[in-house]
DNA sequence: CAGCAGTGTAAGCGAGCGCTCAGCGCGGAT
DNA sequence: ATCCGCGCTGAGCGCTCGCTTACACTGCTG
């Protein structure tokens, strides 16, 4: 039986706090399976087999297949929000904030492309109530980006036709990385983040790009 | 029973050549259903009901549920390739080519966001052989964009760190529109395409933007 | 030692799935 | 008048799904 260790380069430090160990292995197996085939095409038997357990073991730790997806999705969204918030908080000006935010956001979607695929593309499989929780986190992320773009425009650092549309475009670039990035991609997550940082600042019409 | 006419603003001129009429109605119903809930979460009974038929009617016109997806996906990819090719062929220089390509590519993904969602996000549900056909079309599209970006760099019109990455970014912006655009979005498909044309040309470091 | 909470399994239930099949109605050709 | 073939249907087959149940093992506590 193939365990997690043979299922690709899954970072061992994901969810170090999840207890017991079997629950974390189930989350890792869920991420792997959902990312590869999509939530609806994944069976509880797939997940259990990937985690090296019997199908019934899933229900010892999660009340349903959907609850497993929710645990994965919420955790991922919280990571992204925290990472974006940190970039903005640490930056001295909107241009630096946008650069750092794009670098980290993009690198996260590349390095964690497996979980990112679940986070970005399996949303609508969530039951309504749990979808609401995740949707709220997504709104926070979007507002964060829109606000910093608007601040940059107000400060005369950026020149864009429409701040909302520009913010959407910034997020789109990063999100879409999860769709196409693989471990065989030519650029490392950090290199890609750096490239995208350049592209985005120019896209926003930033006069002078702050150093990375 | 709810027919296609109540299932949202589906353009009537999609696939005017598909015969008989019932086959086209099934494709429209399939697009609607696959876009809303995903291929695997959609049942043949859903599709048939949306098209106003019994479940068995699907199999008069398509050999399988997957074949219906393939018909939709191939047609969509061919439309996108044709539209992109036309933009490049008609343009006098790479900068104009990129602007026109982005405008039309983006506007297509906005106006046809329902079919675009199926085209871009339900790929992996295709059986291997049919996936190959679609993957080939996707490579054509990607090469088209990469080539025109590289030509622009060679002509000194664009300044990018990495042409391949920049081309990916250009496509990403357009593709991701299918994920978030709805009929209630603030900008029309054409307005969005125009905005994105501006953003992309600046992103590519184009010195002077050609008029749209 | 007994009792118990936590963790796991083998077996299988009820439901809904993709798809099949025998046959019906009807317009057009003979 | 008869027949054919296309489009379509009602019924349902075989299968797999998410999930449940009854039970077993382990290690800790009293």
TrEMBL record, chains A, B:
Q: Where is the HTH tetR-type domain?
A: 20-80
Please tell me the species this chain comes from. Answer: Prauserella salsuginis
Q: Which InterPro entries match?
A: Homeodomain-like_sf, HTH-type_TetR-like_transc_reg, HTH_TetR, KstR2_TetR_C, Tet_transcr_reg_TetR-rel_C_sf
- Per UniProt, which keywords does this protein have? DNA-binding
The UniProt annotation gives the DNA-binding region as 43-62
What's the protein here called? TetR/AcrR family transcriptional regulator
């Amino acid at each position: 039986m193939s365990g997690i260790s043979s299922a690709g380069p899954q970072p061992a430090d994901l969810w170090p706090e999840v207890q017991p160990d079997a629950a974390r292995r189930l989350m890792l197996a869920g991420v792997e399976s959902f990312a590869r085939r999509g939530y609806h095409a994944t069976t509880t038997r797939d997940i259990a087999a990937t985690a090296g357990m019997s199908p019934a073991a899933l229900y010892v730790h999660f009340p349903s297949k959907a609850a497993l997806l929710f645990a994965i999705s919420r955790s991922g969204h919280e990571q992204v929000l925290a990472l974006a918030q940190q970039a903005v908080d640490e930056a001295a000006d909107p241009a630096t904030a946008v650069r750092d935010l794009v670098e980290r956001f993009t690198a996260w979607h590349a390095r964690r492309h497996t979980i990112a695929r679940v986070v970005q593309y399996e949303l609508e499989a969530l039951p309504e109530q749990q979808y609401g929780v995740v949707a709220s986190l997504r709104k926070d992320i979007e507002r964060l980006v829109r606000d910093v773009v608007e601040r940059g425009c107000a400060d005369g650092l950026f020149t864009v036709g429409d701040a909302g549309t520009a913010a959407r475009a910034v997020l789109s670039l990063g999100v879409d990385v999860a769709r196409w990035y693989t471990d065989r991609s030519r650029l490392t997550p950090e290199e890609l983040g750096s490239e995208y940082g350049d592209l985005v600042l120019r896209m926003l019409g930033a006069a002078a790009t702050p150093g990375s």
